[in-house]
Design goal:
This protein is α/β, with parallel strands linked by helices and 461 residues long. The chain has 3 domains: 1-131, NAD(P)-binding Rossmann-like Domain (Rossmann fold, 3-Layer(aba) Sandwich), CATH 3.40.50.720; 150-294, Rossmann fold; 296-456, Succinyl-CoA synthetase domains (Rossmann fold, 3-Layer(aba) Sandwich), CATH 3.40.50.261. The chain has 15 helices and 20 strands. It has helices at residues 23-33, 78-87, 105-119, 165-176, 196-205, 222-235, 247-257, 264-274, 282-294, 310-320, 336-343, 364-375, 397-408, 422-431, 440-456, and strands at residues 10-14, 39-43, 49-50, 53-54, 68-71, 92-95, 124-126, 133-135, 140-141, 155-162, 182-187, 211-216, 238-242, 277-279, 302-307, 330-331, 356-357, 382-386, 412-415, 436-437. It has a 7-stranded mixed β-sheet, with helices on both faces. Strands 15, 16, 17, 18, 19 and 20 form a 6-stranded parallel β-sheet that branches. Helix 5 (196-205) packs parallel to helix 6 (222-235) and helix 6 runs parallel beside helix 8 (264-274). The longest helix has 17 residues, at 440-456. It is elongated, with a radius of gyration of 25 Å.
């Protein structure tokens, strides 16, 4: 079990540095800045202290129990350091250093030496060639990028596994702008020991994780991988972004991590059968993970659209009605009773047809009343609500209205378009764990991902 890795009681940094441009300095500062409550042991034979913390000449000098050691040394020095960690009883090692299987034959020799040591021990390893971990619940940040350069997400409910460190960091930076939280981030690096299956095991039982987003460039053990993600999807949603879909990108992926890519059509079929949602860029990856973490399952594909902007409704109808998908959505046919009820709410020049247009005169109370009507229509399986803050009667109260109907009514996605006030509104929806998105396409794609996952879970009758 690797549970203790996600709540380490003590951390050693082998290769800690006084030089602010060195990774060993950045990691130490990150642990301090994150508020890590455990004991930190910098290891550097050339200095007595760094940032006021006592340094040790070697890890073997540290007599206290060590949960985790982070190695930031030249590749040639790493095998000896790993050996010392094992002898010192370190439970987990993260090798930040590159220069291993991703570099060719010489790197493979070093990797084999490290693997030989690890395989004969009780110590587990992440990497090499990794940026490490970000664990907001445990206040642990072992990544190699400082808080001055990257915004890190708050605690949340999305587990994040990535074979690319840079993609992981830039994705976390992007979602932090809207306050989207994660339960943990793990960069696998070269996967010499621990791999995605080990971390899926952890996230499957982790109480803070509702869904997992995973970026991959290659797959190990096709059948075993399929069985593992199929098992995971029975309990929690798994969204996968896999690069290497073309011959050229597959070649680039092998140069990046030293691993062989997988035939994309086979992989696509595997994901479909296993019930995982597939994303095609980092934005979709987090959008789908968010909607699957926050939303109840859908029982059909019939969608009602509620907006105060006719043009937004028309564009959304195009997206919803797109039939190129194996499991398409469709516009709901509202019952006569539903349309009569809506006409009593909206202004005469609004539309009670689907998409429902409240016009710019639509108020928060109008949204509440129309959503109540839609809740009672058995021909509606999900609702796409556009909360457009540019209209004069729209206010922050829309968040309360949507929250109320999400709890008692049908599955719901919110679109919040624009920027000036929209960003504030999006952040407020995020605080309430309401799936809200800043564009028409992202809103509808996320709704489709929710429907597709619901089908895979057998929720659709």
């Amino acid at each position: 079990m690797i549970d203790d890795l996600f709540n380490p009681q003590s951390i050693a940094i082998i290769g800690a540095s006084r030089d602010e441009e060195k990774i060993g300095n950045v990691i130490l500062k990150n642990l301090i800045a994150s508020g890590y409550p455990g004991k930190v042991y910098p290891v550097n034979p050339s200095t007595p202290e760094i940032l006021g913390i006592k340094c040790y000449h070697s890890i073997v000098e540290i007599k206290a129990p060590l949960t985790l050691a982070i190695i930031v040394l030249p590749a040639r020095m790493v095998p000896e350091s790993v050996d010392n960690c094992i002898k010192s009883g370190v439970r987990f090692i993260i090798i930040i250093s590159g220069g291993f299987s991703e570099t060719g034959p010489a790197g493979n020799v070093l990797s084999d030496e490290i693997y030989s040591l690890i395989s004969k021990s009780n110590t587990r390893l992440i990497g090499p060639n990794t940026v490490g971990l970000y664990l907001p619940y445990s206040k642990v940040n072992t990544t190699l990028t400082s808080y001055e350069r990257v915004s890190f997400p708050p605690p949340g409910n999305i587990g994040f596994i990535s074979q690319s460190g840079a993609l992981g960091l830039l994705t976390m930076d992007a979602i932090s702008e809207y306050g989207i939280g994660i339960s943990a981030f793990v960069n696998l690096g070269n996967r010499l020991d621990l791999d995605e299956a080990d971390f899926l095991d952890f996230f499957e039982s982790d109480i803070n994780t509702r869904s997992v987003a995973m970026y991959m460039e290659s797959v190990r053990g096709g059948r075993e991988f399929y069985e593992r993600i199929r098992k995971f999807n029975r309990k929690k949603p798994l969204v996968i972004l896999k690069a290497g879909r073309t011959e050229q990108s597959a070649r680039a992926a092998s140069l990046h991590t030293g691993a062989m890519a997988t035939n994309d059509s086979i992989f696509d079929g595997m994901l479909s059968q296993a019930g995982s949602a597939r994303a095609y860029d980092e934005t979709e990856l987090m959008d789908y993970a968010k909607v699957l973490a926050y939303s109840k399952q859908m029982h059909g594909n019939r969608i009602a659209i509620l907006t105060t902007a006719g043009g937004v409704g028309v564009i959304s109808t195009d997206y919803v009605s797109d039939t190129q998908y194996i499991k398409p959505l469709q516009m709901a046919s509202l019952s006569d009773e539903t349309k009569r009820g809506i006409r009593k709410v909206i202004v005469p020049y609004g539309s009670a047809q689907n998409p429902i247009d409240l016009t710019a005169d639509g108020s928060v109370d109008d949204y509440d009343r129309v959503l109540q009507i839609l809740d009672g229509d058995p021909g509606v399986d999900g609702v796409l609500v556009y909360a457009l803050p540019q209209t004069p009667k729209m206010g922050m109260g829309i968040v309360d209205v949507v929250e109320k109907h999400m709890e008692s009514g049908k599955p719901m996605i919110v679109g919040v378009l624009g920027y000036k006030i929209a960003k504030q509104l999006l952040c407020e929806f995020e605080k309430r764990k309401i799936p809200a998105f800043p564009s028409v396409s992202r809103s509808v794609k996320s709704l489709r991902a929710l429907y597709t996952y619901s089908v895979s879970r057998g929720e659709i009758q």
